Amino acid sequence: MKQHFTDERTGIRYTLQGDYYLPDLQLPPEKETEIGLWGQRHLRYLKQNRKVLYTNLLTTGKLNDHLTEIDKQAEDMFFRLVKQMAEREGVTEKLKADNQMEWVGRMNNIRSRATEIVNAELIFA
C-alpha cells in the first residue's frame, strides 16, 4: 500500500495511518495577535457555550481577529462607562485628595458595575 496519495477530484492529500488513509488537513494561517482580558473571557465563553460558532471561527481562520475586535470594543466600552459613571456620581480628583478610602470604595463599585455591563453586552452575548 502506498504511504501517500492525492485524490484527483478534491485535490486532498491522504496519508496511511495504520489501516486507514486520513486526510492531511491544516487550519488556515492566522496572524499572531495579543488577546487581552476581555478577549480571553469571550474565548472561554465561546468554547463552553457556543461550540459551533467557536469551531466555525477557528476553522475559517477568523478567531483571532474576532477576539481582538471584541477585546478592543469591550475595553473602550469599559473605560467610557467608568468615566461617565464617575462624572455622574461626583467621584472626582478632589474627592481622591480629600478622602482616599471613600474614593477607592466608590471607584471599585463603579468598575464592578461597568464590568457587569460589558460582560452582559459584549462578552457573554
Question: What does this 3D model show about the protein?
Answer:
With 125 residues, this protein is mostly helical. The protein is built from five helices and three strands. Strands 1-2-3 form a three-stranded antiparallel β-sheet, with no helix packed on it. Helix 1 packs across helix 2 (51-60). The chain starts with a strand and ends with a helix. The model has no long low-confidence stretch (mean pLDDT 92).
Which labels suit this protein?
125 residues; 2 domains; three-stranded antiparallel sheet; 5 helices
Taken from the alpha-carbon principal axes, the silhouette is rod-shaped
The first-to-last residue Cα distance is: 51 Å
Query: Helical residue percent?
Result: 55-70%
Order of H and E elements: EEEHHHHH
Q: Provide the structure class.
A: mainly alpha
Mean pLDDT: 92
How is the secondary structure organized here?
Blueprint: E1 4-6, E2 13-17, E3 20-23, H1 37-49, H2 51-60, H3 63-89, H4 93-98, H5 100-123
Antiparallel strand pairs: 1-2, 2-3
Helix pairs in contact: 1-2, 1-3, 3-5
